Amino acid sequence: MTPLTASDKPDPDPDAVSQPEGRRVAEVLGNERLTAMAGAVLLVLFAVEIVTVVALRALMPMHFFVGVLLTGPVAVKTASTGWRFLRYYTRSPAYRRKGPPRPLQRTLAPLLVASTLAVIVSGLALAAAGPAPMVLLQVHAISFLVWLATVIVHAAAYLPRVPKSIREDWSHRPSAPVPGRTARVASNGLALAAAGTAAVLLLPTAAPWAGWITQSVSGFGILAVVLIVTAVVVVTVRRLRRRA
Predict the structure, then answer these.
(1) Separation CA 234–CA 16 (nearest Å)
(2) Helices 134-158 and 103-129 meet at what angle, rounded to 10?
(3) CB distance 6 to 55 below 8 Å
(4) Beta-carbon neighbour count of residue 201 at 10 Å?
(5) 102 — alpha (psi -120 to 50), left (phi > 0) or beta?
(6) N or C: which end of the chain has fewer CB within 10 A?
(7) What is the pLDDT of residues 124-162, one digit of tens each?
(8) Radius of gyration of the chain (CA)
(9) In this structure, are residues 129 and 211 in contact, taking their beta carbons and an 8 Å threshold?
């Protein structure tokens, strides 16, 4: 049996400890639930974006729109995980007790953040510059594949916890009630609304791409690459877990 890490242990009940300590525990749980909420939104948008990549000829406007829309929940999730990182390494007792992510996730986290930002920034740059700059296309394609590999590992590690965190936040009888649900929902909602507004305003810049799509790789070719990358990552993760 694999021993539990600190981050796998059951969440403490903030009502079962002293009042100051309860507030600190509630902050940790609130941060986790904010991250889970943003992650759930991202998972849906990522799935849609991958589908548009497979049928890029027909779905270029949607690909662009969802790509801009992603910036909202990405900002929320980056901020919430960055806050946990900061609080953990500044030795906040509650965050230290919660513990760090597992070694594999800690190792891949910088690559996941960097590849996510590279995909989004290069995509926005392509929207502004048009189909001409080949270097931007290459950066966008390579960063997408790196992102795909790392996000699969990330989702496999954290997806089982996301439904529980969201369910606890919306339950009438949560096992660990945590104040601030309205603020968490508002943060995600406002970020999504701001990104959606930007996506609508910037959508006309996607028009020059309508008749482009001259790449030699078809949608089925892209799908094959996606499936190969997914298979390699899944096999690698399973082997690493067995060794652990």
Answers:
(1) 40
(2) 150
(3) no
(4) 10
(5) beta
(6) N
(7) 888 877 776 778 888 888 888 888 888 877 877 777 778
(8) 20
(9) no
